[in-house]
Design a protein that fits this description.
There is one protein chain. The longest helix is centred in the C-terminal third of the chain and has 25 residues. Strand 5, helix 3 and strand 6 form a beta-alpha-beta unit. About 35% of the residues lie in helices and about 25% in strands. It has five helices and eight strands; from the N terminus they run E-E-E-H-E-H-E-H-E-E-H-E-H. The chain has a single domain, classed as Alpha/Beta hydrolase fold, catalytic domain (Rossmann fold). The radius of gyration is 16 Å and the shape is globular.
Length: about 220
């Protein structure tokens, strides 16, 4: 396993902190993680998914949005526009690394990170597959029909805050899509080991399936 800390700059000149988690063998596929408000690249949910993806030879790039974790800026600067710029800059950074041998990148967006992921995927064709975990509907519905990347929406049945929003987002998506409800899970999927495991399983299987199909088209 390769684990490397990196920094990269946004188009606005802010320095962001990231980390690459990758298998030892030659790299092809990579998933970029967009965390939620108040979280960071050390999220145990994202880290758990990233470690599981290693088993299938898929790399992960986890980074801190502006004003979060070890990145530049203040939390109040981390608006949706700024996070959109952050995510596009992360995609640019991954695209500049010659050891990735694919023209498609996966994105895993959680909560407000899912909001930003939808906006990015509606405009950036490099995003070839996406998973939205408990995505927030923050003025994002107009972007959803523009997404073409196959998208999985994962939601907990007990997440009273986000569940209605996730259903609205799912209904607005016109790309290949699935909605998976984890019974008994709340917003963080830490209600039981089984909830966490189910969330991780369906997420990784989605990336594995679509990376395989996208690779066959290359």
């Amino acid at each position: 396993m390769i684990e490397e800390a990196v920094t990269f700059k946004t188009s606005r000149g802010l320095k962001l902190s990231g980390g690459l988690l990758a298998p030892d063998e030659a790299l092809r596929d990579v998933v970029v993680f967009a965390h939620g408000t108040g979280s960071n690249k050390a999220s145990p949910r994202n880290r758990g998914i990233a470690e599981r993806l290693l088993d299938d030879g898929i790399a992960s790039f986890l980074f801190d949005f502006t004003g979060h974790g070890e990145s530049d800026g203040l939390p109040e600067q981390s608006t949706q526009d700024q996070q959109y710029d952050d995510l596009i800059s992360a995609l640019d950074f991954i695209g500049s690394q010659t050891f990735f041998q694919t023209r498609f990148i996966g994105v895993n967006g959680s909560s407000t990170g899912g909001t930003v992921a939808i906006r990015a995927a509606s405009e950036d064709e490099r995003i070839g597959v996406m998973v939205l975990r408990v995505p927030r509907n923050v003025e994002i519905l107009p972007f959803a029909p523009l997404v073409t990347a196959p998208t999985l929406v994962v939601q907990g049945s007990e997440d009273a805050i986000v569940l209605p929003e996730a259903r609205e987002i799912y209904a607005a998506l016109t790309c290949p899509k699935e909605l998976h409800i984890v019974d008994g899970a709340g917003h963080l999927f830490d209600d039981s080991p089984a909830c966490f495991q189910e969330m991780t399983d369906v997420t990784c299987k989605w990336f594995e399936r679509w990376f395989a199909e996208l690779g066959a088209e290359d």
